[in-house]
Amino acid sequence: MFKRVFLLILDGLGAGAMDERMPFHTLAHVLEAVPDISIPNLRALGLVSLLAEEVSWAVRPNLALGKCALKHEIPDSYIGHQEMMGSDPRRLSMELFSQQREKLITCLLEAGYRAVEGPASILLVDDSVTVGDNMEAPPGMIINVFGSTREAPYEKILEIARVVRADCSNSRVNAMGSGKVQLKDILERALVRENGQVGIDAASMDVFGEGYQVTYLGYGFPLAEQAPWAISQAGHQVVLIGKIAHLIDCPGVTSEMSIDTEVIMERFIDELEYGTAEFVAATVQETDLSGHEKNPVRFADTLTLVDSYLARICEGLGEEDVLIITADHGNDPVAGIGLHTREYTPLIVYGPSVNGVCLGVRDTLADIGATIADNFGHLSTEIGQSFLGDLLSTDTRHQESCNRRT
Predict the structure, then answer these.
(1) What is the reported pLDDT for 272?
(2) What average pLDDT is seen over the chain?
(3) Sign of the dihedral defined by the CA atoms of residues 171, 173, 178, 182, in that order
């Protein structure tokens, strides 16, 4: 068993389309668009070898490699993280905001708010907060509740979002607030798409970063059957850093939200070098934001920044520690259209005691959560097949490199 598990999620770093008819390949296209990208540590950890067929993956002592398929049909950060932590990504409502507008007006009125139709048929609540589709997600996946914190306190935006959450079964309701913009700026970005989406084009605005606040209100998954909850309830300390802190609901654990990659990586290293937590998970979000912006240069810059910390992280791992690097879906900034792409995700497992083994293509991201839970006293998750035995095995039959497999 490993004493400590460190999970690093590079949001949106896909490793090839699950449907071979689709042109998506986030990793390959970022490397092609920015050929001078400097990621020596990710290369040493075998990331780039995953571009090739399985027989050529660069497995070596202390390094196991694989890929994970997505069980959820429509790629999404919220559902992807739930699946990764061991939940079955059940089918949720895919209703567009326009199909629920009247119902949501009624529930908001009953909650004491004034809700009227705004530009592009979005809702304007109390003349300060907008409600509509998330325009960066597939149609019907997410509803955004978005306002300027100059004109409405974030607590109010969140309260309105909770009312909306209670009356819809979409995968997620995002409560978004920004101090960089005013309401008039938000309303100017209201638009209608041919696919039926109506909402605010937040990706075209300078709202992220400093002053941006967001809470992801998910549909609800059985917490007791997710790795963080099971591990925490078994008496182990858990720390969630970055986007995962908002996506995974786990009362009693240490959760620290940030979008800034440097802040996230510094906190990750702090936990490695000075912390006492036995399970630490962090999500780097700026890769995903780069995909939404269709900006491969920013994507490459974010990977370069992450890479600059990896030598220190790998050197800092204790004899009984393990590092897992993966993603929740793809977000191809070149072949994509600013939306998540359904791709396999990289699976990199490194540590002084890790058996160098080819993990193959896993059926689901949930295998990661199942493995982490299994490590802490054979705990279980809702779904997922643990590969802990492969990582710990001293059986020489498990030590074959991918390039010797047939």
Answers:
(1) 98
(2) 93
(3) positive
Could you give the 3-state DSSP secondary structure of residue 300? Answer: helix
CB 14 within 8 A of CB 20: no
Q: Are strands 123-125 and 129-134 parallel, antiparallel or unpaired?
A: antiparallel
Q: What tokens appear for 215 in the block?
A: 């809470």
Q: Looking at the predicted structure, is the pLDDT value of residue 405 above 80?
A: no
Could you tell me if 69 and 18 are in contact, meaning their C-beta atoms sit under 8 angstroms apart?
Answer: yes
pTM listed for this prediction: 0.82
Radius of gyration for the alpha carbons in the chain, expressed in angstroms and rounded: 21
Burial class (CB in 10 A: 0-12, 13-18, 19+), 406: exposed
Class level of CATH domain 4-91+221-404: alpha beta
In whole angstroms, give the CA distance from residue 400 to residue 275.
35
d(CA 141, CA 119): 21
Is pLDDT at 220 greater than 80 in this prediction? no
The full set of domain ranges for the chain reads 4-91+221-404, 97-218
The residue type of 15 is: A
